Amino acid sequence: MTFDANAPSAGLARRRFLAVSAAAGLGGTLFPGTLFALATQPSAGSPPPANESMEAQPDLRGWPAITPEMIDAAAAIAAIKLSNEQKQMMLDGLTGQRNSALRVRTLNLANSVAPADVFNPVPTGTPLPHATAPLPVKLGTAPSISGITSAALSSQEDAVAFATVRQLGEALRLRKLTSVALTKMYLARLKRYDPSLHFVITLTEERALAQAAQADREMAAGKYRGPLHGIPWGAKDLLAVKGYPTTWGAAGFEEQHFDEDAEVVKRLDAAGAVLIAKLSMGALAQGDLWFGGRTRNPWNPRQGSSGSSAGSGSAVAAGCVGFAIGTETLGSISSPSTRCGATGLRPSFGLVPRTGGMALTWSMDKIGPIARSVEDCALVLNAIYGPDGHDQSVQPAPFHADLTLDIRKLRVGYLKSAFDLPVFQPLPAEAADKLSAAERADREQEHRRDFDRNLYDAKLAAATLDRLRAMNVTLTPVEMPTFHFSALLNVLSAEAAAAFDELTISGRDALLTGQKSYDWPNGFRTARFISAVDYIQAQRARTLAIAAMHKLFLDFDVIVTPSSGAQLTATNLCGQPAVIVPNGLRGEDAPAFSAGKDEWPDYGGPGTPVSITFLAPLYGEAKACALAAAYQQKTGFHRLHPKLG
């Protein structure tokens, strides 16, 4: 006998369950995470006690009957209390819920199927952005292209390899350089440095050379598509490219193919850019560890590149692509840009269509460029933003970047407490007292080492404010809203677990390279115990967070901040854009690099990059780009590059 969700008896049982639960002050979907995860464990289970008032619902696929003891365990995880009578009343309805979930599971939902509800970060009562015709990025004086020629590829390769997109574009437009020659150079560099940096998953060499030859023919014939025409680039390997595997960086997906290009790939094709590689990403968009190894930081190859846009950050920093595309859910553009000394632009949520890209968290995923300058990032974003008719989250917001505007007229804030120098605090006595003398000494040494690193980097960040004031920028101190933003990250966890539900259910999560407590396999399993009620409550709380962040930006065009901290969580949850730029190198007096027991140490040691971030209101990235570009021109930090062996 199988359960029929449409049968009259099923409907009656469901209505009775809802009525009883409501009377007890409980929601009808209290346990879809906690209880379902417990009750679908394939272990022996005794039937529930007889219930004279209700006929027991049959279970699908032989799962054990739900018992009051299971409800006790689920209730403890859900942090609620139930009486014995309430538990007895719930048994039949909970079995129905489980059967419904099992029926949905048989649909084998593809990762590309988005939820019916679409996240909108625009606060209630705020006008939606108005659609306007795209405009070219307004750039300043044309850069020097001296030395950027085809002849220089053999004698001065680095001068060409580390040139900006704008410089390369000018050289191509003026026929000082051919796209084929540039593409071959970057392909050779990818092959040369991949054995040590592990940033390539798949080269798209045949496609690239055909695109480059076409670009040269078009430009020779006077058909110029714009500043990206003929520029070689790399895609984070969660963007589908027809004819090539799209692996998501994950073991078990190495041979995955899609029969259509991602929308961003289509738009860059239309702009004349040349795709030369699918670049590495941490498995399923986590960190820098993928099935081929750990992507490395070109400034310190003993250190990971960070991620999850690992190959995008590393390859740009190593001068192996003109630019790259990354994605961010919670730091995946910001972190590798910081670690590798690249420039990243994380757009507002809903500015760039994600069609054809792997979904991790539908209400947080964003696609953006990583390049060598803010100008480059603005040029790339200008080619990929705007609705596509498929990704329903995309707003018709404009991106009209004017990098020549007078930055002195911008309303600029800075997160004051984030720039304050830290003060050393000893280990808490209650923690230290539980340790042996040797353990305490080790812990105190590590605690002091962490403080010294934080203090060193805080001084570098604080110098940013002096530079901006020297540029006649008026800075106003401001603080983040008082809100527990990190408490809302159950949204990320639950959506990610849903995106890869089949991986967990099938047990194929065991194929993934990372299997630590902080890796996705354990995270996906843990997230199954987030109830639907708690997920919705987190989304409701997110409405309040959005309102608080909107209020923060009412008085500012740009807010300057260190690249880490609470702002990273808040802006990713609430959708604000960020421009991340290199902010110099740690000096020889910096605390030493030490991997220690940490597989992916955050601190790179002397000679490694740091960054600073420029935030903007929702869909206000153009002004953040203007200030960040002016800062880059003033400091020149983006022109530094690693010395590769």
From TrEMBL:
Protein name per the record: Asp-tRNA(Asn)/Glu-tRNA(Gln) amidotransferase A subunit family amidase
Residue ranges constituting the Amidase domain according to the UniProt record: 182-622
GO molecular function terms attached to this record: glutaminyl-tRNA synthase (glutamine-hydrolyzing) activity; transferase activity
Pfam families: Amidase
Keywords, in A-Z order: Transferase
